[in-house]
Design a protein that fits this description.
This is Lipocalin-like domain-containing protein. The protein has 142 residues and is of the alpha+beta class. Helices cover 18% and strands 44% of the residues.
Length: 142
């Protein structure tokens, strides 16, 4: 009986690690062109549970014309929801000004049970964020 319980715990633990491995990587979104207005979002989820984020905008008649914003912190996966956390004393500084605390994103990928020819790109869809322009942003896995 003990060996069955141990085996079940081991299998469930391995399943959670394999799901985390699918999420790890670089996500990006590029809107616009260099000639007109350009908005770029880059997010990296590291295996150690940390993340880095870079936002770049180049607006033709904007003041200022180019803006770069950065953020970093920790992330955690629960089922298919990724929660982001920032410690203000560690993660927020002169360069990293974006606070991703209370931000949540859904990990979207094609289900293994879906045998159709549909192409579903792996992405993160931001559901909640105190950074107003991050809500409903879809970042695609590179």
């Amino acid at each position: 009986m003990k060996s069955i319980i141990t085996l079940l715990l081991l299998i469930s633990g391995l399943t959670s690690f394999s799901q985390t491995d699918k999420v790890i990587g670089e996500y990006s979104l590029k809107l616009g062109t260099k000639e007109n207005n350009l908005f770029e979002y880059d997010l990296t989820l590291a295996q150690d549970g940390t993340f880095t984020f870079h936002y770049h905008s180049k607006i033709k008649n904007g003041i200022p014309p180019e803006v770069d914003k950065y953020g970093k912190g920790k992330w955690e996966l629960n089922k298919d929801i990724i929660s982001f956390f920032c410690e203000k004393t560690i993660d927020i500084d002169d360069k990293n000004t974006l606070d991703f605390s209370n931000s949540k994103a859904r990990f979207v990928t094609k289900s293994p049970r879906d045998t159709s020819d549909r192409i579903i790109k792996t992405k993160l869809l931001f559901l909640e964020s105190e950074i107003l322009w991050m809500k409903r942003i879809e970042l695609f896995k590179m």
